[in-house]
Amino acid sequence: MYGFVYKLTNMDNGKIYVGQTRRSVEERFKEHKYAESAIGKAIRKHGVEKFMCEVLAICETKEELDEREKFFIALLKSTDPKIGYNRKGGGEGSRRPEESNSNTYAGSESLKISGLAYTLKVIKGKYKMRVLYTLMEFGVVRFGEMKRYLGDEVSFFMLNRTLKELEADDLIKRKEYDQLPPKVEYSLTERGKSLIPLLDGLCAWGEAHKT
Protein backbone atom coordinates (compact mmCIF):
# COMPACT_ATOMS: atom_id res chain seq x y z
CA MET A 1 0.00 0.00 0.00
CA TYR A 2 1.33 3.45 -1.01
CA GLY A 3 -1.36 5.81 0.26
CA PHE A 4 -5.01 6.82 0.60
CA VAL A 5 -7.43 9.11 -1.18
CA TYR A 6 -9.85 10.47 1.41
CA LYS A 7 -12.90 12.71 1.66
CA LEU A 8 -13.82 15.19 4.40
CA THR A 9 -17.50 16.15 4.63
CA ASN A 10 -18.77 19.19 6.52
CA MET A 11 -21.90 17.95 8.25
CA ASP A 12 -23.19 21.51 8.67
CA ASN A 13 -23.40 22.39 4.98
CA GLY A 14 -22.52 19.22 3.06
CA LYS A 15 -19.40 20.70 1.42
CA ILE A 16 -16.55 18.27 0.80
CA TYR A 17 -12.80 18.10 0.38
CA VAL A 18 -10.88 15.35 -1.42
CA GLY A 19 -7.21 14.78 -0.66
CA GLN A 20 -4.43 12.22 -0.59
CA THR A 21 -2.01 11.09 2.09
CA ARG A 22 0.61 8.45 2.67
CA ARG A 23 0.02 8.54 6.42
CA SER A 24 -3.19 7.84 8.29
CA VAL A 25 -6.25 9.92 7.45
CA GLU A 26 -6.44 10.91 11.12
CA GLU A 27 -2.92 12.41 11.05
CA ARG A 28 -3.67 14.29 7.84
CA PHE A 29 -6.89 15.66 9.29
CA LYS A 30 -4.98 17.04 12.30
CA GLU A 31 -2.67 18.92 9.92
CA HIS A 32 -5.64 20.41 8.07
CA LYS A 33 -6.85 22.03 11.31
CA TYR A 34 -3.94 24.48 11.27
CA ALA A 35 -3.53 25.03 7.53
CA GLU A 36 -4.31 28.36 5.85
CA SER A 37 -6.24 26.56 3.11
CA ALA A 38 -9.99 26.68 2.49
CA ILE A 39 -10.51 23.36 4.26
CA GLY A 40 -8.35 24.43 7.21
CA LYS A 41 -10.33 27.64 7.69
CA ALA A 42 -13.60 25.70 7.42
CA ILE A 43 -12.53 23.22 10.11
CA ARG A 44 -11.63 26.03 12.49
CA LYS A 45 -14.89 27.85 11.74
CA HIS A 46 -17.30 24.92 12.08
CA GLY A 47 -15.35 22.74 14.54
CA VAL A 48 -13.56 19.43 14.23
CA GLU A 49 -16.62 17.48 15.35
CA LYS A 50 -18.58 18.73 12.31
CA PHE A 51 -16.35 16.91 9.81
CA MET A 52 -16.64 13.26 8.80
CA CYS A 53 -13.63 11.44 7.30
CA GLU A 54 -13.83 8.52 4.92
CA VAL A 55 -11.36 6.66 2.72
CA LEU A 56 -12.26 6.66 -0.97
CA ALA A 57 -9.39 4.58 -2.33
CA ILE A 58 -6.33 2.61 -1.21
CA CYS A 59 -3.54 2.96 -3.77
CA GLU A 60 -0.41 0.94 -4.47
CA THR A 61 1.69 3.52 -6.35
CA LYS A 62 2.25 7.26 -6.47
CA GLU A 63 0.83 7.40 -9.99
CA GLU A 64 -2.34 5.59 -8.90
CA LEU A 65 -2.68 7.89 -5.88
CA ASP A 66 -2.50 11.02 -8.07
CA GLU A 67 -4.90 9.62 -10.64
CA ARG A 68 -7.49 8.47 -8.10
CA GLU A 69 -7.37 11.81 -6.33
CA LYS A 70 -7.98 13.64 -9.63
CA PHE A 71 -10.76 11.18 -10.50
CA PHE A 72 -12.69 11.74 -7.27
CA ILE A 73 -12.22 15.51 -7.29
CA ALA A 74 -13.70 15.59 -10.80
CA LEU A 75 -16.43 13.07 -9.98
CA LEU A 76 -17.58 14.86 -6.84
CA LYS A 77 -17.03 18.34 -8.34
CA SER A 78 -15.28 19.47 -5.17
CA THR A 79 -13.52 22.39 -6.91
CA ASP A 80 -16.92 24.07 -7.24
CA PRO A 81 -17.01 26.55 -4.30
CA LYS A 82 -20.69 25.73 -3.77
CA ILE A 83 -19.88 22.04 -3.40
CA GLY A 84 -16.38 21.69 -2.03
CA TYR A 85 -13.17 23.15 -0.64
CA ASN A 86 -10.69 21.94 -3.27
CA ARG A 87 -9.08 24.74 -5.26
CA LYS A 88 -7.17 22.55 -7.73
CA GLY A 89 -7.83 19.37 -9.64
CA GLY A 90 -5.57 17.05 -7.67
CA GLY A 91 -2.44 15.10 -8.48
CA GLU A 92 1.17 16.10 -7.92
CA GLY A 93 0.71 19.48 -9.58
CA SER A 94 -1.74 20.67 -6.94
CA ARG A 95 0.28 19.73 -3.87
CA ARG A 96 0.86 22.59 -1.47
CA PRO A 97 4.16 22.33 0.45
CA GLU A 98 2.41 21.51 3.73
CA GLU A 99 0.34 18.81 1.96
CA SER A 100 3.20 17.16 0.12
CA ASN A 101 4.37 13.63 0.86
CA SER A 102 7.95 14.55 0.01
CA ASN A 103 10.39 17.15 1.25
CA THR A 104 9.29 20.37 -0.45
CA TYR A 105 10.79 22.88 1.96
CA ALA A 106 13.73 23.83 -0.26
CA GLY A 107 13.41 27.33 -1.66
CA SER A 108 12.08 30.59 -0.28
CA GLU A 109 8.64 30.33 -1.89
CA SER A 110 8.03 26.91 -0.32
CA LEU A 111 9.15 28.14 3.06
CA LYS A 112 6.74 31.06 2.95
CA ILE A 113 3.72 28.74 2.95
CA SER A 114 5.14 25.76 4.83
CA GLY A 115 3.99 24.43 8.17
CA LEU A 116 7.17 25.88 9.67
CA ALA A 117 6.25 29.37 8.46
CA TYR A 118 2.80 29.09 10.02
CA THR A 119 4.22 27.90 13.35
CA LEU A 120 6.67 30.80 13.44
CA LYS A 121 3.87 33.20 12.56
CA VAL A 122 1.76 32.29 15.59
CA ILE A 123 4.62 32.12 18.12
CA LYS A 124 6.81 34.97 16.89
CA GLY A 125 7.34 37.82 19.29
CA LYS A 126 9.70 38.49 22.16
CA TYR A 127 7.47 37.12 24.92
CA LYS A 128 5.05 34.63 23.34
CA MET A 129 7.19 31.54 23.86
CA ARG A 130 7.89 32.57 27.45
CA VAL A 131 4.19 33.04 28.16
CA LEU A 132 3.40 29.64 26.65
CA TYR A 133 6.18 28.00 28.63
CA THR A 134 4.94 29.61 31.86
CA LEU A 135 1.43 28.28 31.27
CA MET A 136 2.84 24.86 30.41
CA GLU A 137 4.71 24.80 33.71
CA PHE A 138 2.10 26.31 36.04
CA GLY A 139 -1.22 25.55 34.35
CA VAL A 140 -3.47 28.45 35.38
CA VAL A 141 -1.75 31.81 35.90
CA ARG A 142 -3.12 35.22 36.85
CA PHE A 143 -2.04 38.36 35.02
CA GLY A 144 0.00 39.65 37.96
CA GLU A 145 1.68 36.29 38.42
CA MET A 146 2.57 36.21 34.72
CA LYS A 147 4.16 39.65 35.04
CA ARG A 148 6.29 38.45 37.95
CA TYR A 149 7.35 35.28 36.13
CA LEU A 150 8.46 37.26 33.06
CA GLY A 151 10.22 39.96 35.07
CA ASP A 152 10.61 43.71 34.83
CA GLU A 153 11.78 43.73 31.22
CA VAL A 154 8.21 43.24 29.97
CA SER A 155 5.86 46.19 30.42
CA PHE A 156 2.21 45.78 31.42
CA PHE A 157 1.23 47.10 27.98
CA MET A 158 3.42 44.58 26.12
CA LEU A 159 2.29 41.67 28.28
CA ASN A 160 -1.36 42.55 27.74
CA ARG A 161 -0.78 42.79 23.98
CA THR A 162 1.05 39.45 23.91
CA LEU A 163 -1.73 37.73 25.82
CA LYS A 164 -4.38 39.15 23.48
CA GLU A 165 -2.49 37.95 20.40
CA LEU A 166 -2.08 34.45 21.83
CA GLU A 167 -5.78 34.41 22.72
CA ALA A 168 -6.71 35.52 19.19
CA ASP A 169 -4.71 32.60 17.77
CA ASP A 170 -6.55 30.21 20.14
CA LEU A 171 -3.36 29.21 21.97
CA ILE A 172 -4.46 30.50 25.37
CA LYS A 173 -7.80 31.21 27.01
CA ARG A 174 -8.77 34.00 29.39
CA LYS A 175 -11.20 33.59 32.28
CA GLU A 176 -12.47 36.70 34.03
CA TYR A 177 -14.22 36.51 37.40
CA ASP A 178 -17.01 38.91 38.31
CA GLN A 179 -15.59 40.10 41.61
CA LEU A 180 -13.70 42.89 43.32
CA PRO A 181 -10.81 43.22 43.10
CA PRO A 182 -10.83 41.97 39.48
CA LYS A 183 -9.44 38.49 38.90
CA VAL A 184 -8.30 37.22 35.47
CA GLU A 185 -6.70 33.85 34.83
CA TYR A 186 -4.95 32.46 31.75
CA SER A 187 -4.37 28.87 30.67
CA LEU A 188 -3.52 26.91 27.53
CA THR A 189 -6.26 25.86 25.12
CA GLU A 190 -6.21 22.38 23.60
CA ARG A 191 -4.53 23.90 20.58
CA GLY A 192 -1.97 25.56 22.84
CA LYS A 193 -1.33 22.27 24.64
CA SER A 194 -0.44 20.70 21.30
CA LEU A 195 2.67 22.93 21.37
CA ILE A 196 3.95 21.33 24.58
CA PRO A 197 6.14 18.73 22.77
CA LEU A 198 7.71 21.59 20.79
CA LEU A 199 8.35 23.60 23.96
CA ASP A 200 9.76 20.54 25.72
CA GLY A 201 12.05 19.88 22.77
CA LEU A 202 13.35 23.45 22.74
CA CYS A 203 14.00 23.28 26.50
CA ALA A 204 15.85 19.97 26.17
CA TRP A 205 17.98 21.32 23.33
CA GLY A 206 18.84 24.42 25.37
CA GLU A 207 19.82 22.37 28.40
CA ALA A 208 22.02 20.14 26.28
CA HIS A 209 23.80 22.94 24.41
CA LYS A 210 23.92 25.97 26.73
CA THR A 211 27.39 27.06 27.83
Report how far apart the termini are.
Answer: 48 Å
CATH fold-level assignment of the largest domain: GIY-YIG endonuclease
- Bulk shape: elongated
Question: Quick one: how many beta strands?
Answer: 6
State the domain count. Answer: 2
What name goes with the CATH superfamily of the largest domain?
GIY-YIG endonuclease
CATH class of the largest domain equals: Alpha Beta
Roughly what percent helix?
40-55%
Q: Would you list the SSEs in sequence order as H and E?
A: EEHHEHHHHEHHEEHH
What share of the residues does DSSP label as strand, in percent?
Answer: 15-25%
Average pLDDT for all residues: 85
User: Can you tell me the CATH architecture of the largest domain?
Assistant: 3-Layer(aba) Sandwich
Largest sheet: 3 strands, antiparallel
Concise account of the structure shown:
The chain is an alpha+beta fold and 211 residues long. It has helices at residues 25-32, 38-46, 62-76, 108-112, 115-123, 128-138, 143-150, 156-168, 190-193, 196-209; strands at 3-10, 16-21, 51-59, 141-142, 172-177, 183-188.
Note down, in words, how this protein is organized.
- The chain is an alpha+beta fold and about 210 residues long.
- Helix content is about 45%, strand content about 20%.
- A three-stranded antiparallel sheet has the order 2-1-3. The protein has a three-stranded antiparallel sheet with strand order 4-6-5.
- It is elongated, with a radius of gyration of 21 Å.
